[in-house]
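Let us walk through a complete example step by step. Step one is to write down the protein sequence. Step two is to encode the small molecule, guanosine-5'-diphosphate, as a SMILES string so that its atoms and bonds are unambiguous. Step three, shown after the inputs, is the structure prediction itself.
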Amino acid sequence: MAEGKIIKALSGFYYVLSEGKVIQCRGRGVFRKQKITPLVGDYVLFEASSQTDGYIMEVRERKNELVRPPIANVNQAILVFSAVEPDFSSILLDRFLVLVESKKIRPIIVINKMDLLSGKTKPIVEGYIRDYRHIGYDVIATSTVTKSGVEQLLPYLEGRISVFAGQSGVGKSSLLNALRPGLNLKTNDISTHLGRGKHTTRHVELIEIGGGLVADTPGFSALEFNDLEEGQLPLCFPEFLERSHECKFRGCTHMSEPKCAVKKALEAGDIPAYRYNHYVSFMEEIKERKTRY
Ligand SMILES: Nc1nc2c(ncn2[C@@H]2O[C@H](COP(=O)(O)OP(=O)(O)O)[C@@H](O)[C@H]2O)c(=O)[nH]1
Ligand SMILES: [Mg+2]
Ligand SMILES: [Zn+2]
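Step three: the predicted structure of the complex.
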């Protein structure tokens, strides 16, 4: 049996990339009974019946699984924001970061459209870039117009499965096109993010860019904290997590407990107020959700 990775699923066929070749496979008959649905991103063992065709015999255990789009084993999320048009939003970034961290996916932050910054907006965006780098996140500032910074993304893609995520219009498709000339993804395509609620089975495909695999559709289209428990939230803010052993109470939620190291860092200006405020509002949102049931 050979080993490979599913890069596309379409009409009952799975396209398995193995040693540089793509084999068109069907799932084993027993999968249906065992309720196993192979996903794009799955590592599989397959039996080739010819040079081009085969059967998937086994699906390896998944590291994680996204629902929309359906992809397994995502290593990282490239969170794309624009500096302006639309304006950079730190609360939206924090929301993405929490969702990504909670799935044990590594986030990479990209701030695109840097060419559009003016004298007034530049220092604001640069301040955010400094703050997020200070937390320890990788932040890449790009422009697909001047091409500045775009190539810095390539080494991050190598050997990994990545999804691009971010609001419509920030430049995700433009970035992918810039990273892989000839890809020709549609840009300024506002129809694609309206699929919600409609019964469109969106097919996903992983495309090879920079020695890695990238999903061709944006990830994390649902931005609600539906699967998140209160206790998980403090783990999704790395700069809180690293200080939490200094809090007086074990399992401190950094809300109203005394002698809280996070509160202390906030007062000292080591944690920006907006990060803490977003944390509090997410905590309230999670609690609120619970009382609804
Ligand atoms: N000025 C400027 N415009 C950009 C940049 N990147 C993308 N755009 C434009 O922003 C619009 C949305 O880009 P698109 O790639 O479709 O965004 P997506 O919805 O995130 O895939 C298009 O009109 C692009 O030409 C950039 O770096 N600078
Ligand atoms: Mg797009
Ligand atoms: Zn605390």
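Step four is interpretation. The two ends are 48 Å apart (CA to CA).
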